[in-house]
Amino acid sequence: PRPHPTFRVRPLTCTETRRGDQQVVHSLGDGAVHVSAARHDATFGFSAVFDAGASQEAVFEGSGMRQLVELAMDGFSCTVFAFGQTGSGKTYTLMGPLAQSEAQPASPALLGLMQRSFTCLLEQSRSRGSDLALSASYLEIYNEQVRDLLSPGPPCALPLRWSKTRGFYVENQLSVEFESLEAIVSLLLQGSQRRRTSAHALNRHSSRSHALLTVHIRSRAHHPPTLVLQASACPSKHGTLCFVDLAGSERVKETGSRGELSVEANSINRSLLALGHCISLLAKPRGKRTHIPYRDSKLTRLLARSLGGSGITLMVACISPSSRCLSETLSTLHYASRARRVTTRP
């Protein structure tokens, strides 16, 4: 199968409306997006397109997220990642409002793909009556360092290793077991509050790291003593559901960044460039592919299996409809168009 590029177009913000920005992106229905501006008139097709009026529930149901949860429970490696420029709505689509906390939970209608997936996972687990072991890990990649967002104390860098059986993996990351919605949402909110963010010209609460929350779903295989020799006929399954919130892609000069912020922005753009390069090569027919340079960044190493291996991937591309963001919007559209041509063998 191919990745499922899904597009979400956020509304114009009050700031954009006040300064007179024009809306240059329109949904045509049936998965089509039309860009209409000076010297640009193009239509792009995707699996699904959600315009400014689409609810969080509509995005969950229409993107195929429910199917990904079910596939992960069946033992597949499933990934959803959100990308787009800063302020385009990636974190909102995945998590909902930024202001939410355990003390101040978000309105149920505003919850994002992650919380809705957790609810679906736990409901499916109970309805199937299966004996599942659920755990979660939460990492960020900041300035090309992998850091654990769940371990107590200040985030410290963890080594990234490779093995023939596991592929690329993070050594010594903390994985926390959970059995309830409250427990996994608590882990999500605690980790998100530790994630590196900064304010700059494009966004007052900009994510300056890539964040990866992975839910591990293991089915416990129980066999009566008389069937021990036949246990291999009914093996346990291990599926994963990974949510990737990519840091925003934008030109450094647009953010007005200086010093440490400039270093952050350059690290983000280098890793996104490496991701785009891998996607471009993977989009070529298998007979014409050259070496895929997953080792060019920590991000591409951790996404190697999701992008071109045995995984099933949902891409959520978030864009601003503003004329002022046209260049980044076109870049995101072309980025997702290339990804649509990648095939995997889950």
TrEMBL record:
Listed SMART domains: KISc
Domain Kinesin motor: 2-342
Keyword entries, A-Z: ATP-binding, Cytoplasm, Cytoskeleton, Microtubule, Motor protein, Nucleotide-binding
Pfam family name, one: Kinesin
Domain of life: Eukaryota
An individual GO BP term: microtubule-based movement
GO MF annotations, alphabetized: ATP binding; microtubule binding; microtubule motor activity
UniProt subcellular location: Cytoplasm, Cytoskeleton
UniProt key word ATP-binding: yes
Keyword ATP-binding recorded: yes
Main location: cytoplasm
PANTHER family: CHROMOSOME-ASSOCIATED KINESIN KIF4A-RELATED (PTHR47969), KINESIN-LIKE PROTEIN (PTHR47969:SF33)
A GO CC term assigned to this protein in UniProt: microtubule
Protein family per UniProt: Belongs to the TRAFAC class myosin-kinesin ATPase superfamily. Kinesin family.
Residues that coordinate or bind ATP: 84-91
Protein name: Kinesin-like protein
Organism: Copsychus sechellarum
Entries under CDD domains matching the protein: KISc
Gene: Kif12
